[in-house]
Structure formats: C-alpha cells, structure tokens
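Example record for the data management plan.
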Amino acid sequence: SDQFPLQPYYNRKIIKLSTSEDESWLSEFLCFVRSQCVEVFSATKEDVASRMNSKKVLLHQVGIRCRFCAHIPHRERSGRSSSFPSSISRIYQSLTMMLRDHFTKCHAMPHQMKERYLCLKANASQGATDSKKYWVESAHTLGLTDTEEGIRFTSPLSTMD
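Corresponding structural encoding:
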C-alpha cells in the first residue's frame, strides 16, 4: 500500500542511511548527512512513473533521497533530490553527487539544518570519507542487497530505530 501523497519527513517513519557504527568510520559531516538529511526508500509506482524520462527505475528498487523534499512533487524539487544507485558499492558516489548538487539548493531543508550542514561541510575532513568498504558493510547492516534489478531490501521494509 503506497502511502501517497507522502507525508513530510517529521510525520512519517524514516529509514536512515546511518548505522550505529558511522561515528567510528566517517567524518562528522557524513554522519550528519546519513542520519539527518538522507533516507533509504523503496520505489513506488509514482517514483517509477516520474523517472520515465531518465534512468529506468523498477518498482521496489531501493534508492536514497533527501528527506526534506521527498513529499513535494518531483518537478518542484531541486535537482538530484533522489538517486537509485545500480549497486550498493555506488551509494557513496550517489550521495556525493547529492551533496554537490542538491542540499545547498533544497528549498524544503529547514534553515537550522542548512546552517549545520554548511558549517560541517566547510570543516569536513576528506580523510574519513573514503572508507568505501564501510559504506558497503553498513548497507548490508541495513538489510540492503544487490540484485539483477538494482538494490533491494532483503526482508520486507523494516525500520531501524
């Protein structure tokens, strides 16, 4: 049952990209983005339809998206608000493009969140960002798996609290 229209992020369950291990492996900036800005989601019929002109997305394929503007119609969101990486190993790359092109332009991001984002981004250390192996392991921890039809949840949507 697709809950559409989607509720704003503060009124619905969020599946965070973060895990409890993030702080041991990632910069404070990436910890913030993974726990406070991004969510993991499963494509609905609406997502599939809205993607017809770009890269094809399949029903229930797993993607990452900005949690702030996810409830706003596609055409009204800033660019790169969501991404459907072809494999778990590409989640990091997909998020990097969102960091570059989306969050600073997202109109739905609350002011205090944007301030914290910009402050942490300005002070982000590059060193902690390149633990690619950790990104893959943490995706498995969230119950994500690679399939011929993109990333999928291994079990029915379970929210990590």
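Summary line stored alongside the record: The CA atoms of residues 47 and 57 lie 8 Å apart.
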